[in-house]
Amino acid sequence: MNLFEFKNLLKSEDKKEKRKSLFRSLIKSVDVGANGTQDYVVKKGLNKNKIASTNQTKYQ
User: Where are the domains of the chain?
Assistant: First the structure.
Protein backbone atom coordinates (compact mmCIF):
# COMPACT_ATOMS: atom_id res chain seq x y z
CA MET A 1 0.00 0.00 0.00
CA ASN A 2 1.48 3.29 -0.99
CA LEU A 3 1.21 6.60 0.86
CA PHE A 4 -1.60 7.95 -1.36
CA GLU A 5 -3.83 4.93 -0.70
CA PHE A 6 -3.09 5.11 3.00
CA LYS A 7 -4.09 8.79 3.18
CA ASN A 8 -7.33 8.09 1.32
CA LEU A 9 -8.08 5.24 3.70
CA LEU A 10 -7.56 7.51 6.71
CA LYS A 11 -9.80 10.21 5.18
CA SER A 12 -12.58 7.76 4.49
CA GLU A 13 -12.40 6.39 8.04
CA ASP A 14 -12.57 9.93 9.43
CA LYS A 15 -15.63 10.66 7.29
CA LYS A 16 -17.33 7.49 8.52
CA GLU A 17 -16.68 8.40 12.16
CA LYS A 18 -17.97 11.95 11.67
CA ARG A 19 -21.11 10.65 9.97
CA LYS A 20 -21.76 8.13 12.77
CA SER A 21 -21.35 10.76 15.48
CA LEU A 22 -23.65 13.15 13.61
CA PHE A 23 -26.40 10.55 13.31
CA ARG A 24 -26.05 9.62 16.98
CA SER A 25 -26.48 13.24 18.03
CA LEU A 26 -29.57 13.69 15.82
CA ILE A 27 -31.47 10.72 17.23
CA LYS A 28 -34.23 11.87 19.57
CA SER A 29 -35.58 9.79 22.41
CA VAL A 30 -39.15 8.58 22.06
CA ASP A 31 -41.86 8.66 24.74
CA VAL A 32 -43.30 5.16 24.96
CA GLY A 33 -47.06 5.33 25.07
CA ALA A 34 -47.29 8.89 23.82
CA ASN A 35 -50.56 9.81 22.09
CA GLY A 36 -52.24 6.58 23.20
CA THR A 37 -49.98 4.19 21.36
CA GLN A 38 -49.29 2.00 24.39
CA ASP A 39 -52.71 1.47 26.01
CA TYR A 40 -56.28 1.85 24.79
CA VAL A 41 -58.34 4.44 26.69
CA VAL A 42 -62.12 3.87 26.81
CA LYS A 43 -63.86 6.86 25.22
CA LYS A 44 -67.54 6.19 25.99
CA GLY A 45 -69.61 4.57 28.74
CA LEU A 46 -69.21 3.99 32.44
CA ASN A 47 -65.44 3.46 32.24
CA LYS A 48 -64.73 6.60 30.22
CA ASN A 49 -61.09 7.81 30.36
CA LYS A 50 -59.88 4.57 31.95
CA ILE A 51 -57.20 2.36 30.47
CA ALA A 52 -58.61 -0.92 29.16
CA SER A 53 -56.92 -4.06 30.40
CA THR A 54 -55.52 -6.58 27.94
CA ASN A 55 -57.29 -9.60 29.44
CA GLN A 56 -60.80 -8.63 28.37
CA THR A 57 -63.08 -11.04 26.56
CA LYS A 58 -64.34 -10.15 23.10
CA TYR A 59 -67.99 -9.55 24.09
CA GLN A 60 -68.97 -8.19 27.46
Answer: 1-25
Residue pLDDT, tens place only, 30-58: 666 666 556 777 888 888 888 777 665 55
Q: What pLDDT, in 10s, does the model give residues 1-29?
A: 789 999 999 999 999 999 988 888 887 77
Dump strand ranges (E) for the chain.
none
Three state DSSP letters for the chain: CCHHHHHHHHHHHHHHHHHHHHHHHHCCCCCCCHHHCCCCECCCCCCCCCECCCCCCCCC
